Automatic annotation (TrEMBL):
This is Phytanoyl-CoA dioxygenase family protein. The lineage of its organism: Eukaryota, Metazoa, Spiralia, Lophotrochozoa, Mollusca. It comes from the Eukaryota. Its cofactor is Fe cation. It holds the Pfam family PhyH. It comes from Acanthosepion pharaonis (Pharaoh cuttlefish). Gene3D superfamilies: q2cbj1_9rhob like domain (2.60.120.620). SUPFAM superfamilies: Clavaminate synthase-like.
């Protein structure tokens, strides 16, 4: 969620750069990036290096406190692969492989840019390390009425959040 004139830059990375450190042994993962607001160059839309997923996993280190591709390797990737600004309208979605090199910039515009990100992993690729993302477990289907009947909107007990001192993909 990047409101007007806010939000930091998310450095160039592959999602598998994170998920590899979280213990996913194979790159059998994908992301769906869905626009809730218009995503434009001006408000820091997603940028991708077209075809970069074919490189396989690139080593990641810490860049500005985030997990990202080192600058020297990134320069070579940018020389080889076309940079695409993924401008989107609300409701548009981009499905991409976990090895696609991508980033999102600061929002320097007067318009917010909110998106939803959905990450998908195979059941067989359950992470071998415990971390802030849930391990695979079977989801039990409940009636739609359960959503409407929910009255607990603020109790966070039993919920897990990223702990920067323990997570291998962020630095506090």
């Amino acid at each position: 969620m990047k409101d007007a004139f806010t939000g930091g830059r998310h450095v160039w990375h592959q999602d598998y750069g994170y998920w590899y450190k979280n213990g996913c042994l194979t790159p059998d993962l994908m992301t769906v990036y869905m626009a809730l607001d218009p995503c434009t160059k001006e408000n820091g839309c997603l940028q991708v290096l077209r075809g970069s997923h074919k490189c396989g996993r690139v080593d990641h280190g810490f860049v500005a406190g985030q997990t990202g591709i080192d600058k020297e390797r990134l320069k070579h990737l940018m020389d080889r692969y076309e940079k695409i600004y993924v401008e989107m309208e609300p409701g548009d979605a981009l499905f991409f492989h976990c090895n696609l090199v991508h980033m999102a910039d600061h929002n320097r515009s007067p318009k917010r840019r909110w998106t939803l990100l959905y990450a998908y992993n195979l059941r067989e690729n359950n992470p071998v390390y415990k971390h802030h993302h849930p391990q695979y477990n079977y989801l039990q289907k409940i009636p739609d009425s359960e959503v409407k009947d929910c009255e607990n909107y603020s109790d966070m007990s039993g919920k897990e959040f990223i702990n920067g001192s323990q997570d291998k993909t962020v630095k506090s």
